[in-house]
Amino acid sequence: MGESPHAVTTMPTARQLGCPFDPPAELIEARQHSPISRYTFPGGKPGWLVTGYDLVRSVLADPRFSSRKEFMLHPTIDYGDIEIPPAPPGEFLLMDEPQHSRYRKPLMGKFTVRRMRLLTERVEQITADHLDAMEKTGPPTDLVTAFARPIPAIMICELLGVPYRDRGSFQEQVDSFMNGETSDEDLIAAYTATQNYLAELVAAKRANPTDDVLSELTDSDLTDEELQGIALILLAAGLDTTANMLALGTFALLRNPEQLAALRADPALADRAVEELLRYLSVAKTFMRTALEDVEVGGETVKAGSRVILSYNTANRDPERFADPHVLDLRRQDGGHLAFGHGIHQCLGQQLARVEMRVAFPALVNRFPTLRLAVPPEGVALRPETADIYGVKSLPVTWDA
Amino acid sequence: MRITVDAERCVGSGMCVLTVGEVFDQREDDGRAVVLRPEPPAETWELVREAVDLCPAAAIVLSTDRRP
């Protein structure tokens, strides 16, 4: 072996001031050194941090790397040697084959490109309703609560069959899983409340099936417990991710007025704009894998049992893959971003997310031609880096009424 | 150019349909990719290659058509 590999000592907890859309400087620097760096987990356990596009993609596609929950290690907190139980039934994001397929397979037909495109009109209607409400209330408003959160929430709840009246409390609980600022005690309380709610919901769907995905799934060999886990994964993914893309994406557009103007001027730009915002913002920013055997990654040997942190947001800013990666360019031609991951776990709901963003961004910027921040950009409250999904806490906006 | 899809590998991401919808579709029941045009017209080849590259499960296989 030649020189010893580059090392990163700790995962950054904050972004650089004034750069709310860019990955933390430490991670960008790590990628500049090398697409793979040594990373020592708290408690001294050796691991790796992968920041380059090609290597992140190759690890995600490689079945020698496991997604199993019981192998996971917190990147910054030392929990000692406590044993983590395997993922509960149905939570297939944290499973390998063949368990993963048992849950993903019955869902694949329910999130196809065609099925999701059929929802376009419904998304347009919900979006218009929320824009009408914003107009009626008048400026200023918080775009997160008025727009970014409710649109994807209504869609995933309708798709799965969560009654509208239950949405509010449910969303709050899910938000507390994701915001990176919830105490362990509150986390457990929120998780328990969510599980109880979902158990009741699954029982209700079995007793009285309605026209929705969860009811359709009761017509399979999946147990109630499994359905509950599936529902949790789908709701959590559907509620928080797109909501953060919409709010942070609007923030990014407002900070890049020439790009916003381009989107307004050219409706045909919408599809490309959505892909570019996905790449540029990468709100699902890091995931973890565990090597099941010794694997060579970028010239380094990742030993069996080692954890690998995959940095999606630096991969999507890799200059070897994307020209001028730190520039938001809605006309960008090079596709293939990793915002939805890669490999067998690639986001199941990505076509729904695309339809939602494809409708919501243009509708918003066209309805309010004078839309702007109601606070200085430094005043926009951001989620901490410890949050699983990055985003803004609120986005005060105003316009000429 | 001849296209086949390994249905067992397919994870139903829909990336092929999104990239070149005149060549790929997804089955209604299980979301797996199907090839609408196994021998796609030359003007789609570039997009077909992109779809092969984007497929998260490496389920699309290209071969050269051997017939004259």
Automatic annotation (TrEMBL), chain A:
The pathway noted for it is: Antibiotic biosynthesis; mycinamicin biosynthesis
State the superkingdom: Bacteria
Q: Which GO terms describe its biological process?
A: antibiotic biosynthetic process
- Transmembrane stretches in the record are none
Which family does the UniProt entry place this protein in?
Answer: Belongs to the cytochrome P450 family.
Q: Which InterPro entries match?
A: Cyt_P450, Cyt_P450_B, Cyt_P450_CS, Cyt_P450_sf
Cross-referenced PROSITE patterns = CYTOCHROME_P450
Please give one Gene Ontology molecular function term for this protein: iron ion binding
Protein keywords:
Antibiotic biosynthesis, Heme, Iron, Metal-binding, Monooxygenase, NADP, Oxidoreductase
Name-wise, this protein is Cytochrome P450
> What SUPFAM superfamilies does this protein map onto?
Cytochrome P450
Please give the organism.
Micromonospora pisi
NADP among keywords: yes
Taxonomic lineage from the root: Bacteria, Bacillati, Actinomycetota, Actinomycetes, Micromonosporales
Q: Would the keyword Oxidoreductase turn up in this protein's UniProt record?
A: yes
Automatic annotation (TrEMBL), chain B:
The alphabetized UniProt keywords are: 3Fe-4S, Electron transport, Iron, Iron-sulfur, Metal-binding, Transport
**Cofactor(s) listed in the protein's UniProt record:** [3Fe-4S] cluster
Database matches in Pfam families: Fer4_13 (PF13370)
Enumerate the InterPro entries for this protein: 3Fe4S_ferredoxin (IPR001080), Fe-S_cluster_ET (IPR051269)
Q: What Gene3D superfamilies does the record point to? A: 3.30.70.20
Q: Which GO terms describe its molecular function?
A: 3 iron, 4 sulfur cluster binding; electron transfer activity; iron ion binding
The job of this chain, per UniProt, is described as: Ferredoxins are iron-sulfur proteins that transfer electrons in a wide variety of metabolic reactions.
PANTHER family registered for this protein in UniProt = FERREDOXIN (PTHR36923)
**What protein name is recorded for this chain?**
Ferredoxin
Q: Please give the organism.
A: Micromonospora pisi
